[in-house]
Amino acid sequence: MSKQPQPISPMKNFFAGGFGGICLVFVGHPLDTIKVRLQTQPKPKPGQSLLYAGTFDCLKKTLAKEGMKGLYKGMLAPIIGVTPMFAVCFLGFGMGKKIQQKTPNDILTYPQLFAAGMLSGVFTTAIMAPGERIKCLLQIQASTGEVKYAGPMDCVKQLYKEFGIRGVYKGTALTLMRDVPASGMYFTSYEWLKNVLTPAGKSHNELSIPSVLFAGGMAGIFNWAVAIPADVLKSRFQTAPEGKYPNGFRDVLRELIREEGVGSLYKGFNAVMLRAFPANAACFLGFEFAMKFLHWLSPDV
Length: 301
Known about the structure:
This protein has eleven helices and no strands. The chain is mainly alpha-helical. It has helices at residues 10-40, 55-66, 68-71, 76-100, 110-144, 152-163, 165-168, 172-197, 209-239, 249-260, 269-297. The model has no long low-confidence stretch (mean pLDDT 87). Keywords: Membrane, Mitochondrion, Repeat, Transmembrane, Transmembrane helix, Transport.
């Protein structure tokens, strides 16, 4: 069960979540770039080998060709999107918890925490879907060498001009399919690990920094273990030429399994898992520090 050290404040969750999201992007974006490049690399022609043999090969080639800057390609879009997105994500989780409490001191069960986490996934999709679409397009154009978009805003302008709002929001259903169950897993595993790591008779607020880092990092691992298949489909769908997959994700799924087998749904697995631990450890540490600061600033709100 989850101990609630103080009444839940969705607004404090909102601001602390935004700060946690900024911490996550700075730590995690380089491996996110590698993940997207691995997931979207073209199938080699007969007799040719894959562009990237794996995570470390992709890292090596990106650094050799583009330097450190190449790993941070497309970062402006997630920074602009992630701060409000994580703010909304943690707000959704806070609201999900609060509406299930009959009194402010109610301790929530793990299924209730999972439901609150799923609600946060619904909340974030409106911001996440266009941000992910722009990020993926900018990341893959850097690896193909064809520069179509000058930056995030140019990408939005061109997509809107060509395809309208639907072009910007392409892949929304897949983003929902990825984020709703994954967010449930994310928050539930974090709360469970905090409970496990909190010594008897102590409060969650007294958890050491290494314990918060471990719980946050493992929550990221659990989150991505659930999210990867839908994420692979989403990356493929969002970066495909218009009209390539008329039936949406079903076409992407059929093509991937037919051409590359079920294992292709776990493309970029190493890059995702290498990124998940430090990025989410940074996110939850940032969140917990911001929450302590906000409680100190305004203990009664």
